[in-house]
Design a protein that fits this description.
Layout lengths: L2 H29 L6 E2 H7 L5 E10 L3 E4 L18 H11 L8 E6 L2 E6 L1 H9 L4 E9 L11 H17 L1 H4 L12 H20 L5 H22 L11 H19 L5 H12 L6 H13 L12 H4 L11 E6 L6 H14 L2 E8 L8 H16 L4 E7 L2 H9 L4 E5 L8 H5 L2 H8 L4 E4 L8 E6 L3 H17 L2 E7 L6 H13 L5 E5 L4 H10 L4 E5 L5 H7 L2 H8 L4 E4 L1
Parallel strand pairs: 1-3, 3-5, 4-6, 7-8, 7-10, 8-9, 10-11, 12-13, 12-15, 13-14, 15-16
Antiparallel strand pairs: 2-6, 4-5, 11-16
Length: 575
C-alpha cells in the first residue's frame, strides 16, 4: 500500500472513529451512562493520592486506561476522538504505527488499578481502534489508600472521596487500617458519621466522661458494626443483594429495624430485622410482579386455607448464636380474666430464660387502641411485670385476632395464649376455631394454656418421627437440658412406625447428654396421650403441629385437635 493510499485509509478510519464517538455520547445521554474520560487531577484530589514512584516501562492493558491528565474532554472513555480538529495528528499516528520504527511508549500515571494519560492520547486511540489489548508505557504510580478499578464511574469517585474523608476524620484508617467500610451509593458515609455520633453520646452517658470521636468510632466499629457484619455473613444476606456491600446492608438493616420498631412498638433484634429485610426485599423474593402476585394471593386466600409454615422455619429464623430459645415471649391478651392465665404461664418461662414479655392486645379498629379498656389491660400488664421484676413491652394492634397474633409472632420466639376457644369435634367447629388457625399459621412454637397454669417441671413429648415432631424433640431436648426438667418420650406407632422411631429420639437425646423416660404406645389417640400424661404425673405436653393440608385437617381433625379439646395441661405445639 502506497503512502497516499495509507493516508487516505487512515482518514477513513478517523471518520469512522468520530462517528462511533458521537454515537457513544448520544447513547450515554439516553441511558444515563458515562462516555467521558476521568480527570486525573479530580481523581487525585478526591482520593487524596500523594507520593509518586517511577515503575519504568510496562505493558499496560488498554482497558485499564480510563482518564487523562489534561485532555479528558477530547476523547471518549474508549478513546474515540470527539473533535474533528484531532484528525491530522490522529492520521499521522495511524500511518506511523504501520511503519517499521513503530511508536514510542506512552506516559501514564497509575492510581490503584487504573491509568491516566500524560502523553500519548492519539497513540492509545489508534491502538484501541486497531484492536490491540496492551500498550507499552512509562508508568508513574501515585499512591492512594483507596482502590480504583477500570469500571470506576463519577458516582464511584464521589463514594471513594467520601470514604477517604470518613476514614480520616473517624480515625479508623489508623485504629482499623484493614477495615472494609465500602459502600455503593453517595451520601452513605454521612449516615455512618451520624451513627458514630449517637454511639459517642451514649458512651459518654454510660462512662460519665468526654469521649473523643476517634475512640467512639473505634468502639462503634468493634462492638456495633462488626457484630452486624457477622450476622449478615452468617445468614448469607449478601447473596440476596448482589452488587452491594456489608456496609450498605448494615445501614439498610438499621433503617428497616427502626421502621419495624416504630410500627410494632417493640425492640427488634438486628438479626431478626436482617432476616425480614432479606425475605421481603432480597432477590430470593423474585421480581416486583411476583411479589405483587403473592400479596394478591394472600388477600384472596381464606385464612383457614392458607398453607402452614415449613417445619423448622422458626428455628432457622432465630438469632444466630442466641443461647436462649425463648427470650422474646409474646403473650396474647384480650382483657378477659381468662387471658391473664397466659401471662401467668409466660412469667416462669421469662424468669428461666432471662427473657422479656411482650403483651399484645388485638382490637377491632384504631379507635379502640386508646380506649379505657385497652389502657386498663396495658396498665395491668406493666404492673404485673414490675411486680415480678421482668422487662415488659406492651402494644395494641388492629385486625383479625388470629392473623394478627401470627404476624406479630414473627418478631418473637414463642406465642403464649389462653386456650379459651378450643377446637370442636365437628369439621364446622374446627373451621370456625381461631385457635386452630393460629396453630396452622403461626411460624413460632405456640403454648396453649387451659384453665390453670403449670410449673413446667415434667414434660411429656409425643413423638412420631415426623418433621414437626422432630422440632418438638429439639425443643424438649433444650427444655430438659437447660431447665433440668424431667422428660418422658412417648413414641406413637402407626403405619409401620415402631421401635426404630423411638431409637431415633433416644439417640438424639443421648448425643446431647439429656436423659429421658421412654414409653411405646400403639394408641394413636389424643385422649390416650392425655391419660398417659396424667398416669406419669406430667404437668405439660410437647407436640409437633399437624403437617396435613389445612382442608384435610379441618375435615378429619388431628391428634392435636383432640388433645386441645380435652387437655387440662398446657400444651406446647411446635412446627
Amino acid at each position: 500500500m502506497g503512502e497516499m493510499e495509507s493516508y487516505s485509509s487512515a482518514i477513513s478510519d478517523f471518520r469512522r472513529a468520530r462517528g462511533r464517538a458521537a454515537l457513544q455520547s448520544i447513547m450515554a445521554k439516553l441511558t444515563g451512562g458515562q462516555s467521558e474520560l476521568l480527570s486525573f487531577e479530580d481523581v487525585r484530589r478526591k482520593v487524596r493520592a500523594a507520593g509518586v514512584v517511577s515503575r519504568g516501562i510496562r505493558e499496560v492493558p488498554l482497558d485499564a486506561i480510563v482518564g487523562s491528565v489534561g485532555r479528558y474532554q477530547d476523547f471518549t472513555r474508549t478513546f474515540l476522538p470527539r473533535h474533528d480538529s484531532d484528525q491530522d495528528r490522529w492520521v499521522q499516528v495511524k500511518v506511523a504505527s504501520a511503519g517499521l520504527a513503530g511508536l514510542p511508549p506512552v506516559e501514564l500515571y497509575q492510581i490503584g488499578d487504573v491509568y491516566f494519560v500524560s502523553d500519548g492520547h492519539h497513540r492509545i486511540s489508534v491502538a484501541r481502534q486497531q484492536g490491540q489489548a496492551d500498550i507499552q508505557a512509562y508508568v508513574t504510580e501515585v499512591r492512594s489508600k483507596v482502590p480504583l478499578t477500570a469500571d470506576t464511574s463519577p458516582d464511584d469517585l464521589i463514594v471513594k472521596a467520601e470514604q477517604v474523608e470518613f476514614l480520616a476524620q473517624s480515625g479508623l484508617e489508623v485504629s482499623y487500617p484493614d477495615a472494609d467500610l465500602s459502600v455503593t451509593c453517595p451520601g452513605r458515609y454521612q449516615e455512618l458519621f451520624e451513627h458514630i455520633a449517637v454511639h459517642r453520646h451514649y458512651m459518654g452517658l454510660e462512662q460519665q466522661r468526654e469521649i473523643s470521636y476517634e475512640e467512639a468510632a473505634a468502639h462503634w466499629y468493634e462492638n456495633v458494626c462488626l457484630p452486624v457484619f457477622r450476622i449478615i455473613n452468617d445468614q448469607g444476606i449478601l447473596y440476596d443483594f448482589p452488587g452491594r456491600t456489608e456496609t450498605d446492608l448494615y445501614l439498610w438493616i438499621g433503617k428497616h429495624r427502626a421502621d419495624l420498631e416504630e410500627v410494632l412498638g417493640w425492640d427488634i433484634p438486628f438479626s431478626t430485622a436482617a432476616a425480614d429485610l432479606a425475605d421481603s426485599e432480597g432477590k430470593a423474593r423474585g421480581s416486583i410482579l411476583v411479589r405483587l402476585g403473592q400479596r394478591v394471593l394472600n388477600v384472596m386466600t381464606p385464612d383457614e386455607l392458607e398453607a402452614a409454615p415449613e417445619a423448622g422455619q422458626w428455628r432457622r429464623e432465630r438469632e444466630t448464636g442466641q443461647d436462649r430459645l425463648f427470650y422474646d415471649i409474646l403473650v396474647g391478651l384480650s382483657g378477659q380474666e381468662s387471658s391473664w392465665l397466659a401471662l401467668e404461664q409466660a412469667i416462669p418461662i421469662a424468669k428461666r430464660e432471662g427473657g422479656r414479655l411482650k403483651g399484645l392486645l388485638v382490637v377491632a379498629d384504631d379507635s379502640l387502641s386508646e380506649s379505657d379498656e385497652a389502657n386498663a389491660v396495658r396498665d395491668r400488664f406493666y404492673w404485673r411485670c414490675g411486680e415480678v421484676s421482668l422487662d415488659g413491652r406492651f402494644a395494641t394492634d388492629v385486625g383479625p385476632v388470629a392473623r394478627t397474633l401470627c404476624r406479630r409472632a414473627r418478631w418473637s420466639d414463642i406465642l403464649v395464649v389462653n386456650l379459651a376457644h378450643r377446637p370442636g369435634d365437628s369439621s364446622r367447629s374446627r373451621w370456625a376455631s381461631g385457635f386452630r388457625m393460629i396453630l396452622q399459621r403461626c411460624s413460632r412454637p405456640v403454648l396453649a394454656v387451659p384453665d390453670k397454669t403449670s410449673g413446667l417441671e415434667r414434660f411429656l413429648l409425643a413423638y412420631d418421627g415426623s418433621p414437626q415432631a422432630q422440632e418438638a424433640l429439639y425443643v424438649a431436648t433444650y427444655l430438659s437440658g437447660q431447665w433440668q426438667s424431667d422428660l418422658v418420650v412417648m413414641t406413637i406407632t402407626e403405619d409401620g412406625v415402631d421401635e426404630r422411631t423411638q431409637a431415633l429420639a433416644r439417640t438424639y437425646l443421648e448425643e446431647r447428654s439429656v436423659s429421658a423416660t421412654f414409653i411405646l404406645d400403639s394408641e394413636l389417640d389424643g385422649r390416650a396421650i392425655l391419660s398417659r400424661a396424667e398416669e406419669l404425673k406430667c404437668d405439660s405436653l410437647i407436640l409437633g403441629g399437624s403437617g396435613r393440608n389445612p382442608v384435610v385437617g379441618v375435615v378429619s381433625g388431628s391428634i392435636v385437635d383432640d388433645i386441645l379439646a380435652a387437655t387440662t395441661l398446657p400444651v406446647l405445639v411446635c412446627r
